[in-house]
Amino acid sequence: MAQSGALLALAVWVGVVLSRPLGLGAPVIEAALSGSEAWPALRRQLVPAGIAGVFVGGLLVLYGRVAPPELLTLGQTMGIPVAVKLLYGGITEEVLMRWGLMTALVWLPWRFIQKRVGPPRTSCVVGAIVVAALLFGLLHLPAAAAMGASLNPSVVAYVIGGNTVPGILFGVLYWRYGLEAAVIAHALGHAVSVLVAV
Q1: Segments making up each domain of the chain, as ranges
Q2: Would you put residue 95 in left (φ > 0), alpha (ψ -120 to 50) or beta?
Q3: 72, pLDDT greater than 50
Q4: A GO molecular-function term, please (predicted)?
Q5: pLDDT tens digits, 127-164
Q6: C-beta of residue 52 within 8 angstroms of C-beta of residue 38
Q7: Residue 23 φ then ψ, to 5°
Q8: Residue 117, class by beta-carbon neighbours within 10 Å (0-12 exposed, 13-18 middle, 19+ buried)?
Q9: Which helix (H) or strand (E) segment is 189 a member of?
Q10: Beta-carbon-side half-sphere exposure of residue 80 (alpha carbons within 13 Å)
Q11: Are 136 and 97 in contact (CB under 8 A)?
């Protein structure tokens, strides 16, 4: 628990310190903290985040139907509470993976290759989005193993693939619209998948 808290604190620090020079940010939170009206920033995020969230929710439902049998069994016997999916998935994972990790991955080439000249190259941002999404998928493997899944090739491919595609979408939302858009889409994706499955 302490280790998770330390990682989350580090991710928050990285995002706060490094995001602004890169053109990244959390515009709703920034507006609220500065005493400005937050609604215009949020309004700009709602449509793209909503579309992405519904798409991800549908993807999760479809993906669930082709899950390896052992994961289906584990999912039925060890269901993750909806609140955990929405809060941990929607907020904590986005702070860790996009606000922290993706920001750092964009900053590194901007700092050491571009020498802080101009905005980050699109290729660097896209690369950071993909790498962060792949790591997002890889980091779900320990959770699958902890639930009792054997990490055979089909399970590994399923877990990584099922998290990488949404991770790419969340990364694009963070890049183009801000952290809150990624958080909304992530939480909405889980909500849609749960509602459809009821």
Answers
A1: 2-197
A2: alpha
A3: yes
A4: endopeptidase activity
A5: 999 999 999 999 999 988 887 778 899 999 999 999 99
A6: no
A7: 80, 15
A8: exposed
A9: helix 179-197
A10: 17
A11: yes
